[in-house]
Amino acid sequence: MIQLKVNGTSRQFDGDPDMPLLWYLRDILDMTGTKFGCGVGLCGACTVHVNGAATRSCSMTMKQAAGKNILTIEGLAAHGDHPVQKAWKANNVPQCGYCQSGQIMQAAALLKQKPKPTDHDIDEAMQGNICRCGTYQHIRQAIKQAAGVKA
Amino acid sequence: MSNVYQVSRRGFLEGLFSAGALILAAPLVPEILKGSEADNAAFHPGVYVGIQPDGKVIIVVHRSEMGTGIRTTLPMVLADELEADWKRVQIEQAIGDRKYGSQNTDGSNSIVGFYEPFRVAGATARTMLEAAAASKWNVPASECQAKNHEVVHSSSGRKLGFGELVADAAKQPVPKREDVHLKSPADFRYIGKEVPITDLDAIVTGQRAFGMDAKVPGMLFASIEHPPVLGGKVANVDDSEALKVKGVSKTVPIETFKGSNYMFNPLGGVAVIADNTWAAFQGRKKLKIDWDLGPHATYDSVTYKKELQETARKPGRAERQVGDVDAAFAKATKIIEAEYYVPHLAHAPMEPPVAVADYRDGKVTIWAPTQNPQAVQTTVAPAVGVKPEDVTCNVTLLGGGFGRKSKPDYCAEAAILSKQLGKPVKVVWSREDDLHFDYFHFVAAMYMKAAVNEKGLPTAWLGRSVYPPMLSGSDKPSYGGLGSMGFIDVPWEMADFRAENGMAQGHVRVGWLRSVANIPHAFAVHSFIDELAAAAGRDRVEYLLAALGSDRIIELGGGGRGGGRGGRGGANRPNPYPIDTARFKRIVEMVADQSGWGKKKSGNGHGYGIAVHRSFLSYVATVVEVEVDSKGGIRIPRVDTVVDAGTVVNPERVRAQFEGAAVFGASLALMGEITSGDGRIQQSNFHNYPVARINEAPFETHVTLVKSDAAPGGVGEPGVPPIAPAICNAVFAATGKRVRDLPLKKAKLV
Lengths: 151, 750
What we know:
The complex is a heterodimer. Chain A is an alpha+beta fold. Chain A has helices at 21-28, 62-65, 83-90, 100-113, 119-126, 136-147; strands at residues 2-6, 9-13, 47-50, 53-56, 69-71. Helices cover 36% and strands 14% of the residues of chain A. Chain A has a five-stranded mixed beta sheet. In chain A, strand 1 (2-6) and strand 2 form a beta hairpin. Chain B is an alpha+beta fold. Chain B folds into three domains: 5-197, Aldehyde oxidase/xanthine dehydrogenase, molybdopterin binding domain (Aldehyde Oxidoreductase, domain 4); 211-295 and 353-428, Aldehyde Oxidoreductase, domain 4 (2-Layer Sandwich); 301-345 and 439-746, Aldehyde oxidase/xanthine dehydrogenase, molybdopterin binding domain (Aldehyde Oxidoreductase, domain 4). Chains A and B meet through helix 1, helix 3, helix 4, helix 5 and helix 6 of A and helix 6, helix 7 and helix 16 of B.
């Protein structure tokens, strides 16, 4: 029996311990805000926080998630009012929107680590998150706005 | 057909509107578009708007949302003419139904095709509300005006809310089109303003459901091992190990499409059924299948490229000709030739193909991210032996589309499995499935030849393009068909011109990708004009303006095949979209000005390139700045784009489309390539089919929209074609190296 916390709620899982956290969240808990994009940690659509660190949930097994605190897009802020979400809205970042949960979780982790990121910091932190619509320029603006640094 | 009419609550509408609501349907085919589509016009009854007795306005959007913002933009148009308060508008997504007219969200056509009908629908409802108020107050209708969700009597100042008027308005005769007055642009409330997308809050909180998130009680999960080669069939399958995977319940064979008729039909293979996605994926890895691979198992991209290039060197079928290029070449003093090549590309939307199907008692319900819900109906129906009207297709948000999700093969797979298993089934494609079995953008070879005069300007032009046909389903070589996009409509002023198309045989599924044949054609045409300018030693902006020549309208008729969206006029009908060289020249001048063209010299690994292209009825000029480092790595610090798309409804979202197009174009130019060996696609995920990431994409893109009240052009696709040639022209300016084969990552720049 694997125990873990998801968005503050204690959960137990007795399925395949090799199941990736992504599919546990999506298919077992029906928390579909975390997206499937590549399955091998190359696109970032499935990014969640594991004990506070941005993590690709497609590449972490339930065995590895045991005992951890998982935060997903659904739990990032009570009313969607995390500074990153607010900046995302103010800057109209999403186009199709599919990758944006992952982008937002990655950006939130970046700002926790580096509250005033440079362009280089943003490139380093965000290059694992693909956006096929090409919203990168808006993402960069929104991160800077959330951080209160000059665009 | 030109009138809006009132409809009763029925079917889908019944669930949406309460009793007493005013519901209007309008024809979806503007008069101007009827030329070639006259036969279908009678089946195009409706865009719907309804007003509830509580005043809530419900607008049904029949086009799919894949990131352009159309779910917001079309309702803005209707709400504007209706004088509705945007806060009291509810937007509903239409199911697939031919009564809406074409729902195929492609061709950058949603605003082009539906701007006018949505305006008429809104204005008609407004007119009926005003008439209802006039009759209630017993005053002339001309004294009653709708204003922000109320009708106001001008002299007395009396007011009635839309909700209070609904019951009486529904009894009013529906006015004829000529009695419905559209607003003056000066009075627009929403058109031309920046309105955030309706799904914004739900997207940033992870609440908005995409196709991947669809769920039906009792649903099973399926992952399909497709034949590795197009047209391959299962010879033998051993599923004993797959069935041992925890959560896997069974395997189900799916028949391969018949003959070479792949079209939208399932590829075939073996489906692994499980109680979650992961188990289905794991089970698939344990399948042991012997394949009968069929004739395409020899498809090899290296050999095929040579074949296409050989064909492009020989005369093809003339798609359009003016004057006599052969005679002009024979007496020319200077001739320039060049060959270009663009490989297969994959759509790679962030959400791979996925669909949920529920087959019950001869009826099927589908939930899918699809650009074309009616094609879902007509594809699913024969696959499971029902009528198209017995297929209900619910359209979810699309996690990207780019043309891939116009083809509903994955929906047919889900329906076949649901029928067989007697339960709802969700088919999930992995990224590997997506890249191995895409409808690939066609690989293309182009041969270009021009005679130039003493100023270095082209006087005679021959363009020859060869690529396998889209969705041909043919096992013989044939013409690419869309030879017109960007190739017959070359705007340079020349006496002699011919565009030709050669034959090729497809070996993988080939389908349209964002901007379609404009991708290879714009690459060839705008690289070649840059080569001519280089040979003449002239400044590119000055040269392009000279090559565009006099202000004139280019007629594609006469000696040409197919219009390539050159215009939309019919017989005896004015064309609202003539190819106008003055509009080309204007945006070239504007983009030069905006980018500071000529202020910084190119060279030493730093350079600027320009391309100007018209597609999907819009004109786009782009300047790209590149830096090439000592290892040949390319950085794009800045892109400047000027767009003349005529009337623009939601400028903020339109600029976003062109920013995105710069990234999409940079991806294909820098790194996009799909190859085949032994009939198998050699790319499998984002490590070997890379797309631009934040550190590789253009660092900043500046987009200016030309202020215009001309008929609206497309915006989803036209930003893509100029990017690749502008990048390569900039690389040439920076390094002196001319790259004629994409992608750039394979070129030796240092």
